[in-house]
What we know:
The structure is a homotetramer. Chain A has helices at 11-23, 50-54, 107-120, 143-157, 190-197, 213-225, 253-260, 269-273, 279-288, 315-328, and strands at 2-5, 27-32, 37-42, 59-63, 83-85, 88-90, 96-100, 124-126, 161-165, 179-182, 203-206, 231-235, 265-267, 293-297.
Amino acid sequence: MIIVLKPNPDQKQLEALKKWLCEQNLTVHDSLGVNNTVLGLVGDTTAVDTEMLRAMSIVQDVQRVQEPYKCANRKMHQTDTVIDVGGVKIGGGTFQIMAGPCSIESQEQISEIAVAVKAAGASILRGGAFKPRTSPYAFQGLREKGLEMLINASRQAGMPVVTEIMDISQLPYFEDVDVIQVGARNMQNFELLKELGKTDKPILLKRGFSATLTELLMSAEYIMAGGNEKVILCERGIRTFATDTRNTLDLSAIPLLRRMTHLPIIVDPSHGTGIRSLVKPMALASAIIGADGLMVEVHNHPEKAWCDGQQSITPETFADVAKCVRDVLPYRCREEIE
Amino acid sequence: MIIVLKPNPDQKQLEALKKWLCEQNLTVHDSLGVNNTVLGLVGDTTAVDTEMLRAMSIVQDVQRVQEPYKCANRKMHQTDTVIDVGGVKIGGGTFQIMAGPCSIESQEQISEIAVAVKAAGASILRGGAFKPRTSPYAFQGLREKGLEMLINASRQAGMPVVTEIMDISQLPYFEDVDVIQVGARNMQNFELLKELGKTDKPILLKRGFSATLTELLMSAEYIMAGGNEKVILCERGIRTFATDTRNTLDLSAIPLLRRMTHLPIIVDPSHGTGIRSLVKPMALASAIIGADGLMVEVHNHPEKAWCDGQQSITPETFADVAKCVRDVLPYRCREEIE
Amino acid sequence: MIIVLKPNPDQKQLEALKKWLCEQNLTVHDSLGVNNTVLGLVGDTTAVDTEMLRAMSIVQDVQRVQEPYKCANRKMHQTDTVIDVGGVKIGGGTFQIMAGPCSIESQEQISEIAVAVKAAGASILRGGAFKPRTSPYAFQGLREKGLEMLINASRQAGMPVVTEIMDISQLPYFEDVDVIQVGARNMQNFELLKELGKTDKPILLKRGFSATLTELLMSAEYIMAGGNEKVILCERGIRTFATDTRNTLDLSAIPLLRRMTHLPIIVDPSHGTGIRSLVKPMALASAIIGADGLMVEVHNHPEKAWCDGQQSITPETFADVAKCVRDVLPYRCREEIE
Amino acid sequence: MIIVLKPNPDQKQLEALKKWLCEQNLTVHDSLGVNNTVLGLVGDTTAVDTEMLRAMSIVQDVQRVQEPYKCANRKMHQTDTVIDVGGVKIGGGTFQIMAGPCSIESQEQISEIAVAVKAAGASILRGGAFKPRTSPYAFQGLREKGLEMLINASRQAGMPVVTEIMDISQLPYFEDVDVIQVGARNMQNFELLKELGKTDKPILLKRGFSATLTELLMSAEYIMAGGNEKVILCERGIRTFATDTRNTLDLSAIPLLRRMTHLPIIVDPSHGTGIRSLVKPMALASAIIGADGLMVEVHNHPEKAWCDGQQSITPETFADVAKCVRDVLPYRCREEIE
């Protein structure tokens, strides 16, 4: 960490600052310039609060040299983390597709889709039981009953499931769920993250609408610091001025995250664009760019879907997407990133 | 609501769509153009899912004419809502200042600040006990103990308090809290909003980092639809490419919100800028533009603050801000907005 | 075009509006609802100023159904436009790579790079002579002399060139230039666009930092309306809150633009990310997603480049990128987009 | 400037870097840490290209301590710059209002508005002759003829004028223009800025849609480095995800710019919001926050305006705005900013 002091800092305050830094087990190196003094800190600065330093009247700027995340940091864990989800391995060079409807609507619906997406190449079934909807008047999901249907469907089809949790109080219902999803709106629901850190379930953590990559990793760190290292990251689009798509899918995040962390990273092209016809091109781009998998919304009757039908594709289209993705996998860009 | 159909829509699908719309108690008006047919819907469209309509293959676009929020809508409730917080009235032409530290650090600290900000003109004491921090390694607040200190301080100073809740499970601790704050990161924590809708406490709802004004009002609607109409909105800056400030304080939101809703709207210039020296100018601008109040971070020793010291001002500076704000109140822009 | 009127519009103003619309050769269809009247306009609304309509006190909202661009519109010109650049065909299923240094620094430098990128698979040589730099104190390009060196190098290597124009007054120097580039900062330099519309040179038009896709096409329309239909579009990243990369490369723009327009679309992964190690993954993603080509910065000594060295790759790396791109071309997603 | 090196840098490269830095007349201070070496540079780093440094393989990061602008820097010029426009002083504590129509439409129109806005308190007449319009099919301004009408109107009314230039080639027509405006789309039209730097006319430089404050000042620096120090800055809204307003007016830019530069700063609430009813509240907020003036669109018949009528106010409304602004001026926040 580097602290740039303002010109002519008060010497008493400077001594107090240095003393405090030493008490944090940091070694301080001075660099005296003509206008500004620069302090270089050596040691573990993860727990140093840059806000507090910036608040000091003698400090002009503070810059981290080390990343503020440890458990999630590639530097601390060189090899890719591989997460086993009921026999399905995520990370480390595999490519897994999670597919299913936005909302679980009935046993028939989810069971039918489960069979169809498995046949087409999906390895994990997705489906929403607890649904975060912008409007209180919109369908809020079948909740516990939906979870039951999802698990029934998964057993029939023989594939693990991923589904979203919205609040700590719902955790007891997730016992038979294989992967617990934290949605974009909850990426910084820190109490929920801490609680999930105490479980041993794999967690699918979606990037918030306006989260930086470091913030995403700090949220993963909340889960990991609690003891649960099974975190799967998911890029699902960010909010920008560009509104031709619902969100702007930030594909450069994939190679950047692979350099920053050892955790697996998947892409959700359905929410990331909000447009059915963009799912295939963005899925192919995600595969080629080195993602560890996809999450895709599939509905047997997208036009009758209870939510997000506009971005759902049919099982037939999904089969085509999955096949084309498999075709490009041998050409994936997964080499070492400096 | 207006539905623009694609050219030459399939007639069977069109009939099915019209039938379904009629079943929703909506009257459908056709407008036949050369290229596109437009359907105009008359009736209460609040519960109509525009996503579902857009997913239909014959539909090109859907546009709301009515707002999707009812309880919060100015059209349904012409006069300003006034919320009574232990005798302090918020809304309807008053101007209230909430002030206090980012974090409660000790009984002495919060008690000393409480007395100071009250003397300087604050009418409500703020202070964080449960703290949402980006890093799991940063100070997370004194939690229950902090709440106790806050309430002690408020009783000594004789002023009501506002403090943030982070999870439903903390609700029992908030019995003596006067206003419950929902932070920007939780603006779309819908389960929490629903639960708060069942209480009769005033709720201070902060705008999310990347929330539109309609989304903010839909979140207010979650609380109000549950029966709790005491919602105070708070503009606290949005995330943009402009990083000279921590966030970009969107002051045009104030007059826009006043037109859209009858709920009181306050501004947080401390989080909205993240820079101490901007608190005063942005506070004055908020007052003149017609806000119903302010929320300001005040710390007796900003340089030793356990969080967000960079944006905290001293009680002395706060007294100056409060005085200057009072001076401009007679010139406030509160006239009718078309 | 649809005009939503406010409730109970003044009848005189409404009659005046309808009369004016009829004078614009538009047919007006009324749709009377309970709260709002909606006018549907039939005819060519390209020249109707939506701003003027929105300014009327009886108008609540105006929505275009037809796109405001004609020459660039895919609906008016179903087949892909193919642009011939000295025998190199851009568009219609080909894939062309433009490569070369950010700045031309010397005859030796540009000649050496030209030979290297041609050998590696580039079909067009790029190189900056007039350089838009944020600082007036930074190197501004070799200007006319640079253009001469570029053209010399291109003749030696036997490949056409593309280079940026910054002002109309520079046009005389561009006589021997094969493709004239308009940079992101000049995307809405309308006087320059009009002037380029009078030439018969292919124009490479880069998307502005904060331009929507419709704005990009309107700028293409400026050139095309002047008679020059040879416009190549270029996605090069947009400005968002996400600053891990210099810009956020918006790859979803490629399939969206292919649906909106018949013009060829290329991607610049060098400026789009600003990071050397991201050039290859983003180049592969661009190819697979259906772009018509790439523009890549290549420098024989990136560490000594006079500008943008951080995003330049070596000829050796470029050869690897070009090879990998060729490998994935058979799997490109170029099918019909609804 | 601070250069953070990667761990274990190649010693030869490090020596070469240090040698080169010394050749730039910079003194280099080493700070050796456990993981990273940090170089502190002392001297004038304005012309040092941070891009080039970042491109070096041994460099991890580069951070400026000094600002990259000199002429515009408050540190180099402590007192406010005051610009005299035909006797009207801008900057240094005055408050000037520029008002007039978006477009000049006829001699009668501009003359009538000139008289009206002068009577209401405007000191400078604005009016567009060369109009940057997104669509080539929209009205492009009366151009030279419009300029003549503007100057006639200004002489009749006895007030100086400001109007926009779009291209260097138009400069000869601006001989009688008092202030030349550079629009947001041209903020980085560097060739135009350089040419304006050779004139002795005051330049009104509008912030680009997605420009940082440093970029705005670097564009001012282009003009000033050429010898013309008469630059007036103008905040006019930035492009964000928030689309309730046309742009997001960034009022925190005013106190920030006052700290960074000695140049006067005005606000354009008309373009900054795009909504008529927001002009007054944002004008009052701009005045109270410490701006040096306003630019406001006024039209005698906003509903018949040829462009941007939606954001134009009538002379009557303008008179009310100007009066209310005058009322709050005694309470302006113009004190020293740390």
